[in-house]
C-alpha cells in the first residue's frame, strides 16, 4: 500500500509501505478515507525519531471503512464507518473502562505512527488493535470532517479546557492559536466562559480567533492589556497550546489568584518553574495529557447539537500523495495553513 513514511528530519515521503497484517483475533483493518496532520506530528517531522532502519508510517488521526475483522471482533463488521482515536488501549482494564487509555494497565497506551509499535494512519490502510474498543463507529449527525477532528484535535483542546477548570462566567486565555488552540477557544465558550482571549504572534491566527469570538492579543502586549482590562485581577484560567518555555511562562503570568493553568503543548522538554509565583497566587498548574476516549461522549453530543464546529479549523484539503507538500506548508505556516486534511 501507499502512505507517508518518515525518512529523517524534514523528509516525509509518499512511499510503499507494508500492507496491514492482523496478528490477533481482535485486530481490525480499516481503509483510510480521511486523515490529517497534527501539530505533534511536527515533532517527528523535525527529527523526533531516529532515521528508521525500515520505512515507518506516521500520523495518528484518521477515519475510514472497516474492511477486515478478526474472529474475536464482536461489534464491528466490514463496511462500518469508523473514527480512530489517536491513542489505543486494551479496552478491558479499569482505566480503559473509564476512557483513560493513557493509563492502560495491559501494555500501556500506544499512539499510531509515533512509538513504532503501531504504524501510522497517514496511509491507505490501518491496522487497529483491539478493534471493538479502538475503532469507534461514526455517530449520526457527525460529518466525516467533524469525525476526523474528534480523533485527536478536538478532544485535546477540550481536555486542556476541562483541566483549566473553565466554567460559566470564567475569563480565559488560550495561548497559541493553531488548530488545537482555535478548537480550545470554541471549547472554552462551550464550557461557559464569559471572556476568551486568543494569544498568538501571527496576525492571521489572531484574526481566526476573533472569528471564533475571542479577543485577539499579541504575546508581547497580552499581560499589559489583560492587567488593564481586569483592573489587575488577571484571568481565571489559561490554556497553553504551544509547548514552549516562553508561552508557558506567559500563561502563568496571565492567571490571577486561585486560577488554573493547563498545558497541552507537547513540545516542552524542560522549564524553570516559577514556584514562588505559583504559590503566591495559590494557582493550580496541570500538565494535560489527552485520552480521546474519555471525552468522546460529551464531545459527540456537543457536535451533534451544533455547539462545537471543529471543522472550521480546516484550511487545506489535499491528496495523500501530496502529503510531503502538506507537511512543508504546515511546518512553514504557508498559505494560512491550519488543519491539513488528506484524502486517500
Blueprint (SSEs and pairs):
Elements: E1 2-8, E2 11-16, E3 28-37, H1 41-48, E4 56-57, E5 62-69, E6 81-84, E7 87-88, H2 94-97, E8 110-111, E9 125-128, H3 131-134, E10 136-137, H4 144-149, H5 153-162, E11 171-175, H6 179-190, E12 195-199, H7 203-211, E13 215-217, H8 219-229, E14 235-240, H9 245-254, E15 255-263, H10 275-281, E16 284-287, H11 292-304, E17 314-319, H12 323-332, E18 339-343
Parallel strand pairs: 11-12, 11-14, 12-13, 14-15, 15-16, 17-18
Antiparallel strand pairs: 1-2, 1-4, 3-5, 3-9, 3-18, 5-6, 6-10, 7-8
Helix pairs in contact: 5-6, 5-11, 8-9
H/E element sequence: EEEHEEEEHEEHEHHEHEHEHEHEHEHEHE
The overall strand count is 18
Low-confidence stretches: none
Class of the largest domain in CATH?
Answer: Alpha Beta
What is the overall number of helices? 12
Strand content: 25-35%
Gyration radius, to the nearest Å?
20 Å
